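Risk register update: the risk of archive-format incompatibility is retired. Evidence:
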Amino acid sequence: MAKLRAFSEEEKENARRISTMELLSRRYGFTFKPKGRGFSCREHDSLIISPDQRGWHWNSRGISGGDAISFLQKIENMSYPEALQEIIGNGISYAQAPKTEIKQKEKKPFELPEKFEGQYKRLFAYLCKTRGIDSSIISDLVRTEQLYEDEHHNAVFVGFDIDGKARSAVKRGTADSVKFRGEVEGSDKHYTFSMLRSQSSKLYVFESPIECMSHATMVNKLKGNPFAYYNQNRVSLNGLSDLGLSQILEDNPQFTEIHICLNNDDKAIENHGQIAARRIAEKFTAKGYKCVNHLPPYQQNDWNDSLKVRLASEQSQQVKSIPPPRR
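Archived output:
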């Protein structure tokens, strides 16, 4: 990390006064729309910005702050000096944009981020070692161009339409120190990341691509086969909107059962995953689909946490099975 320099009181005050909306737009590609007297994030609808564009509250995470500095501290675990350097060093300035500009903001055409030219070492290290995903699954998705590493070393998960054209993408940071994720601007929410590998009539629905891959890995572990996950079909909502689900059902009429596998943050003020699960079940049951809700196993909040618990248990059993050294 670059050496942190000292900041003047004027610089600190300017950093406190910058628009949190501008920071989130430039750093993560988030977009906003007016909601009440404030603004809500289109990519994360529980993230609310106050009318002065400085204060923020992320309802689903139960955290809030009064300025952009606090956002970097609480979301990316930066220290106060690190957050200052990130803001000041990148030339982010105070900008109070009129509400009319946000309403009329023209959406840019969708373009995939540039690919990293070289071996995807960061991608594989992050997904295999940090997330516990089977390498065979990662390799399969890279081969089908549904997954790649961009020039900033983010993992990029791509959604295609029925004609094989890329229509959306979500990015996930691969650095342990920066918990970055966001949707590529211009993405069409109707075409989300999916893993369609089977002629089965069942479709498993998750919040994110990593949750899809975690479930697939657990199936492989359960069956003892690195390709067992080919017997199921999975789709990521890339959040909690059901637009991607509606589109994939329209494009694949063989699906008659929807297996809802959303997160279960039962300790949160509002369990958004399970609220969405009930909404989806009611909506698609009325359309004639059989809907089944599945909670993440091992009493975890999401499927990747469940996978990590399973892997830790397997490792513990392997250690116990090693005979003691002879004396």
